[in-house]
Write a structure and sequence with these properties.
This protein is an all-beta fold and 87 residues long. The protein is built from no helices and 6 strands.
């Protein structure tokens, strides 16, 4: 694999401050065990033109600038979903 698509999934309740150059794709349902979370998915294609191939041993950043989120202040316990995939 020399080129890839990075996908990040953030709970819809989280506030996106900076998308780090990723593109919003869609709202989706993320199922984990018996819990379902509504998430917003973001992705970035790393292919030509614009990105060098990925070679073994070469380090790279997925987001530049950094992806930033804010966690809403709530009373009590709450769970947020965060997930990623690379294809």
């Amino acid at each position: 694999m020399m080129y890839y698509i990075a996908r990040l999934f953030f709970d819809k309740q989280l506030i996106i401050i900076n998308n780090g150059g990723l593109t919003f794709q869609s709202e989706q349902i993320l199922q984990t065990g018996d819990k379902a979370f509504i998430v917003n998915s973001y992705s970035k294609n790393y292919s030509i033109p614009g990105a060098m191939p990925v070679w073994q041993g070469v380090r790279f950043k997925i987001c530049d600038p950094h992806f930033q989120i804010a966690v809403p202040k709530v009373n009590g316990d709450i769970s947020y979903a965060l997930a990623w995939s690379v294809d």
